[in-house]
Amino acid sequence: MGVYSCYARRYAPLVTMPITAPASPADSAGGPPGTTGPAVGPAHALADVTASDSALRRFLHGLPGVDAVGLEARAASLGTRSIKTTAKAYAIDLAISMIDLTTLEGADTPGKVRALGAKAVHPDPTDRTTPQVAAVCVYPDMVATAKEAVAGSGVKVASVATAFPAGRAPLGVKLADVREAVAAGADEIDMVIDRGAFLSGRYLKVYDEIVAVKEACGTDARLKVIFETGELATYDNIRRASWIGMLAGADFIKTSTGKVAVNATPANTLLMLEAVRDFRAATGVQVGVKPAGGIRTSKDAIKFLVLVNETAGEDWLDNHWFRFGASSLLNDLLMQRQKLATGRYSGPDYVTVD
Amino acid sequence: MSDHVSLSGSAARRLSVFKTYKLYVGGKFPRSESGRVYEVTDSKGNWLANAPLSSRKDARDAVVAARKAFGGWAGKTAYLRGQILYRVAEMLEGRRDQFVREVAEAEGLSKSKAAAQVDAAIDRWVWYAGWTDKISQVVGGGNPVAGPFFNLSTPEPTGVVAVVAPQESSFLGLVSVIAPVIATGNTAVVIAGEKSPLPALSLGEVLATSDLPGGVVNILSGRTAEIATPLAAHRDVNAIDLTGADEVLAKELEIAAADNLKRVLRPQPVDNVVDWTADPGTHRLTAFLETKTVWHPTGSLGPSGSSY
Amino acid sequence: MTMDKQSSLFEYAPAPESRSVVDIAASYGLFIDGEFAEAADGKVFKTVSPSTEEVLSEVAQAGEADVDRAVKAARKAFEKWSALPGSERAKYLFRIARIIQERSRELAVLETLDNGKPIKETRDADLPLVAAHFFYYAGWADKLDYAGYGPNPRPLGVAGQVIPWNFPLLMLAWKIAPALATGNTVVLKPAETTPLSALFFADICRQAGLPKGVVNILPGYGDTGAALVAHPDVDKVAFTGSTAVGKEIARALAGTRKKLTLELGGKGANIVFDDAPIDQAVEGIVTGIFFNQGQVCCAGSRLLVQESIQEELLESLKRRLSTLRLGDPLDKNTDIGAINSAEQLARITALAEQGEAEGAERWSPACELPSSGYWFAPTLFTNVTQAHTIARDEIFGPVLSVLTFRTPEEAVAKANNTQYGLSAGIWTEKGSRILAVADRLRAGVVWANTFNKFDPTSPFGGYKESGFGREGGRHGLEAYLDV
């Protein structure tokens, strides 16, 4: 019984379940990643809180509040960490390995996606020691092409779905979107939540939809749940959305679509890292985090890794548990990597444009 | 007192009723626990009354009463404190003649000069009554800190104040040192002028009938040094006004006051006689105020655009 | 592909700030009347780096004769300085503020070397606040008529100022900026363990072209300070330091004309209610007691946590403390630096031992202390009650005492149950509770949902035995004016 028994006692008087001891972090650290994670639907200790709309609301509104200034100050202060030499080299390679290399344009073509896949597998053709990225992230109709492009490499194919980015489509359409992507071979599904339902207080609808999508993902595809934090407007909402996502069985919680003005920030990512940390302590279930959109430089990426390291801890310093949704970030990381190797600053002509 | 008993019928002058002057402590009128009194005379040496000769224990009791009253008095709205102080002025106006007589006897003044002193004293209560709900705005306020914080400084009463009332001005001076202390929410233990304590002891009777909660003002008469010394050293007294202490006593009291770092209002230098009729300014109000500064995050438009 | 799990490699490599930015001379004199001079009796003392025990420099030690000479110089300078138009005095102060900004990295490194605090703090907190303080008071110099103290308020004369070692340059700024803005001249004694930044400040005065004698710096020990405050030609005494010394000064000044302000010790309560924003509260607790190794008069050294969330909060807090990085103060990633002196370390050690002896439960994160220098691991005491020495005495170190409460009333009563009254913290999401509790706390600074924030516009100072007078803001002018 850890401290999070109090958590539940405090925030959800309706929760009467016996709380199981959190799984030891070592359990997942020892074995190959990808073996843990909840079955479809909530099988964990906080199951009761989703029993009804009112129960869920009471739970979410009982979560500790977020002081915006304090949160941002903490994020900024971690941003002053100075990562040098060996730590920097490690961080750059780790960051490259965590990238979901993304193209989500109306103008995407098979050619574009194939080029992206090639880059994902060999980010720096001049240096084969460069790690691969984690995944390529495309629209559902490009999944098959992407799958082909990365075949045999170990790079995953992630597909946005559920009427990305707005999510304003009937549930049946969203689920069909997901099934098509999974059928085409997607290893990961990046869904968007119904922000309209969230902002109008229909938390259970948001929850149910995630559960349904998770089910549509089947047993093989991992589910990333995008909150579009820029539209949720408050940090309290981001914390609540995080808990809805995790309760509903998300494998990852993800900040943004990259399609609105405000995407991933150190503060909202810090907040979500606190959420996954607290969720694992409460349930034993580890959930990944994916900041997406707006992370363009190595310096930014390293700051996010510092957030991970000092908030959720090193169990999350692995691309099974942390991703960057980004496209231009990769080239900056590659240039920094070349700089560390050669001692000279690199330039855009020395990395590939795809 | 020149009344003589006459036994002859209707033509006889009526024998007046003397007042036993008593201390004013915790809203009550005790005698000194020591049972001692001392003779108070007018400026010509004629006997006026026997005043209580307060002891260290009376001082201690007064501090207990003042401390007990502090929370309630400081917690009242400034508006209500103003109402009560104004009520004191109203009550004084009704007993104006009595105070004119007592001040004339105490200070050897003509009736008209004594009346001027009493009128000024009443007006001073009115002046301070109006200050209760203004001083916070004058000395407090928001501070424009360089960050996403609301930052507000507010004056608060310092607590229990020991007041060594002026020796010369038995009523206007007395009022001028008591009113500013309590206007801001402090409570007071007042040592009346040693030689002429009667106006002070009578003031207690006015305060008792002015809706002023018991213990907010406590008035002791007796030997100034004897009462002031334990008060200056008392650890539950927060501040001391040395106005009525001479140079030697003031220094001793200030040394004793350092034991718990009382706020000390020093007396004016001897060559600088206080004109109690002059505009008193805010000095005596602010001398017994603490400034409390409260910070709170405001939320800000940080890089995330969602700092709420 | 999945990278091999090798997160142990993400141990941050050392990231030391360059020491070459500061050039410390082998010896320094007293700064009197615009010149550096040896002490009349030739006495010197050594100042060491608390993180390595390396001798940084040898500094002249002022005696009574030097105090007299400095006060005379300040008196002489006062006539012209106080007669300058405020707008001219302002420009000197603006110059000083700007030079401090220009030299801030040098001064940050210097302060870190001499004091032992992390470069992160000197760089991001001390130095920006120092410059801001001079900039703020510079602007007051020609606006004193509008400060609310009546028309044409006059300076007092010569200010004798004694400052502590915990924020050497910032405390200097708090003292000197308002004194000069109001037209006083100063003689300042820095602490014996941290004299260097004040001596560098003397050089800044030189660069700014400040008239001779307006600022005089006298390094020395307590006897130097005592001589300074006792000097008959000093008109104003400002002291920041221990309550015991503050009382001595108050006694020494009894019966004199000298105006006195004191900024003394504290035992701040940081009150965490069950509806607090927990993650930010944890940060606030950490900032409250581990900022500057807890060597802060307004530290939140007593954590008052609502009993219903004690377990949860402590677990979060311990987890957070385990991420604190203790070590080389010049490393940009260091969170906890060295204790300022062997003497202070001994005091902290003794009080912590007493805490254990009195039955409180002691906890520190796994934490390797460097082999040389003065170090103390971040320490948490639980099962502490108001009766424990560690809940009453100011430890002035990275030691947090955790107490519990059940109701807001009990929290306020315990918070106020101390002879001090400098700071307090409140953590709750309920606005009315913040205001109600803030109203009842007897403390000069109340941080609600934040802690240890400072600003030149914001008055700072204590209730009760934490001293009297305020520094900062409009309020801070009063101490240096004849009002």
Automatic annotation (TrEMBL), chain B:
GO terms for MF: oxidoreductase activity
Segments forming domain Aldehyde dehydrogenase: 34-265
Alphabetical list of SUPFAM superfamilies matching this protein: ALDH-like
Keyword tags: Oxidoreductase
Coiled-coil residue spans: none
Pfam families: Aldedh (PF00171)
Record keyword Oxidoreductase present: yes
Record protein name field: Aldehyde dehydrogenase family protein
Source organism phylogeny: Bacteria, Bacillati, Actinomycetota, Actinomycetes, Kitasatosporales
